[in-house]
């Protein structure tokens, strides 16, 4: 393994990235003990410069980071942790510490949107909201959800026969939404689905 280049205080910056979505969650510091503890336990540990002590991420909040992989940059002076984040990463209550946008030239949608939508649907199931279409589907049950999957699949087929892609885009989004509702109803996670796709690849 490449040797870590700790600074004069015995610290190295560490970046935590959500393994499932690629979202950058936070930046903290590690000393040798924190690095070793992370490898040993499989959960992110850092060194608090203000408290001058080792701490496990989520030890009080429960928002732990289960480590998927640990990498060093080309110079060995920065650690990248790919993690599965439980709850939020930021002490402010935001999901990521990087929520203060300075400039955004283009908003690019990515796979993290699927996780956000899946989690929102899951939350609706646990905390019903009056007037929610998602809750209506859950209340009607599996037969209603399956009927909607059938209807939306047919609409995707019809849209695909028409010129252009705008109609297909709309109908495909409807189908994916209803598929996420079905997955929630049956207890199938996106991670399991992506694992199946990865296995086929």
From TrEMBL:
Documented EC number(s): 3.5.4.19, 3.6.1.31
Domain of life per record: Bacteria
Compartment(s) where it occurs, according to its Swiss-Prot or TrEMBL record: Cytoplasm
Catalytic activity: 1-(5-phospho-beta-D-ribosyl)-ATP + H2O = 1-(5-phospho-beta-D-ribosyl)-5'-AMP + diphosphate + H(+); 1-(5-phospho-beta-D-ribosyl)-5'-AMP + H2O = 1-(5-phospho-beta-D-ribosyl)-5-[(5-phospho-beta-D-ribosylamino)methylideneamino]imidazole-4-carboxamide
Domain Phosphoribosyl-AMP cyclohydrolase: 26-99
A Pfam family of this chain: PRA-PH
Principal place of residence: cytoplasm
Family: In the C-terminal section; belongs to the PRA-PH family.
Designated name of the protein: Histidine biosynthesis bifunctional protein HisIE
Region (Phosphoribosyl-AMP cyclohydrolase): 1-113
Keywords: Amino-acid biosynthesis, ATP-binding, Cytoplasm, Histidine biosynthesis, Hydrolase, Multifunctional enzyme, Nucleotide-binding
Residue numbers spanned by region Phosphoribosyl-ATP pyrophosphohydrolase: 114-201
GO molecular function: phosphoribosyl-AMP cyclohydrolase activity; phosphoribosyl-ATP diphosphatase activity
Pathway(s) annotated for this protein in UniProt: Amino-acid biosynthesis; L-histidine biosynthesis; L-histidine from 5-phospho-alpha-D-ribose 1-diphosphate: step 2/9; Amino-acid biosynthesis; L-histidine biosynthesis; L-histidine from 5-phospho-alpha-D-ribose 1-diphosphate: step 3/9
InterPro entries cross-referenced by the UniProt entry: His_synth_HisIE, HisE, PRA-CH, PRib-ATP_PPHydrolase-like, PRib_AMP_CycHydrolase_dom, PRib_AMP_CycHydrolase_sf
């Amino acid at each position: 393994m490449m040797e870590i280049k700790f600074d004069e205080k015995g610290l190295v910056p560490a970046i935590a990235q959500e393994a499932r979505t690629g979202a950058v969650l936070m930046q903290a510091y590690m000393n040798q003990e924190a690095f070793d503890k992370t490898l040993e336990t499989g959960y992110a540990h850092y060194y608090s410069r203000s408290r001058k002590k080792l701490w496990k991420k989520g030890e009080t909040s429960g928002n732990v980071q289960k480590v998927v992989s640990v990498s060093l940059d080309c110079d060995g002076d920065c650690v990248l942790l790919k993690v599965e984040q439980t709850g939020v990463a930021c002490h402010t209550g935001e999901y990521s510490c990087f929520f203060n946008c300075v400039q955004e030239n283009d908003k690019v949608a990515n796979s993290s949107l699927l996780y956000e939508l899946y989690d929102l649907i899951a939350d609706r199931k646990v905390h019903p909201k009056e007037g929610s279409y998602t809750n209506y589907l859950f209340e009607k049950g599996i037969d209603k959800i399956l009927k909607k999957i059938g209807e939306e699949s047919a609409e995707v087929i019809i849209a695909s026969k028409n010129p252009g892609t705008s109609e297909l885009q709309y109908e495909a989004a409807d189908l994916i939404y209803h598929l996420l509702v079905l997955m929630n109803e049956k207890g199938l996670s996106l991670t399991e689905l992506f694992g199946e796709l990865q296995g086929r690849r």
